[in-house]
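Ticket #4471: structure output looks truncated?

Reporter: J.K.
Steps to reproduce: submitted the chain below (181 residues) through the standard prediction queue, then opened the result file.
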Amino acid sequence: MSQGTVTTVSSNGVYSFTKPNRESITLLAGLGVAGDVHSGVTVKHRSRVAKDPTAPNLRQVHLIHAELFDEVAGAGFEVAPGDLGENVTTRGVDLLGLPTGTRLHLGPEAVVEVTGLRNPCAQIDDFRHGLLKQVVGRDEEGRIVRKAGIMSVVLAGGEVRPGDTIRVELPAEPHIPLARV
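Returned output as attached by the reporter:
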């Protein structure tokens, strides 16, 4: 198991691309972030609701690594925690390298299970023109690489604050690579 740190927590009760930073957020088992517009048993993201409003919500909590902000800053883009709509900003955990089913223990009580990669949309370019190309690219074999964080569901609720430790619990092998959700 490895460890990292929660650097920022964010939530928003209304649909908006960005989410304001908070002193803490409360995760609710099976639902997501208390008071967040994307909290619920069934899908809440507008594009998902349009396809099937009864589908399970595999995107209850969005986590993004602060190292991405460092990377895009090198390309001239200023992005801060909460700007890309994430609920939890982390440092020190290779979120994109985790397998599906990884459990992340956030602080003393909360546990989320990783369901997959965030599939970045064109709204990112509306936020900062050209940023989408920084968070979605292709590898040497031409495969799509998504870097805008991961999605998860809440297994155990609890309060999460900046400075909380993140403990990574990998699932049993064989590990299944993350795919978009």
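Triage note (M.O.): checked the attachment and the full token line is present. The two ends are 25 Å apart (CA to CA).
Status: closed, working as intended.
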